[in-house]
Design brief:
This protein is mainly alpha-helical. It has one domain. Helix content is about 60%, strand content about 0%. It has three helices and no strands. Helix 2 runs antiparallel to helix 3. The mean pLDDT is about 90.
Length: about 55
């Protein structure tokens, strides 16, 4: 089951992806690891970098 609709959040847009991680860390911390894993497995290098940046926090 896909938790996010691809029309709601563009997971290839670095700004939107970083905001998603910020939201998860504040509102739903149990899903943060899931959000970071999405980014690490992305083909987009900017998204991978954002995921690693957030993982290091």
């Amino acid at each position: 089951m896909n938790v996010l609709s691809k029309t709601a959040i563009c997971l290839d847009d670095e700004w939107e992806y970083r905001r998603l991680l910020d939201l998860l860390s504040e509102a739903i911390p149990k899903l943060l690891d899931w959000g970071i894993e999405l980014g690490i497995n992305s083909r987009n290098e900017e998204i991978q970098e954002a995921a690693n940046d957030h993982k290091e926090k």
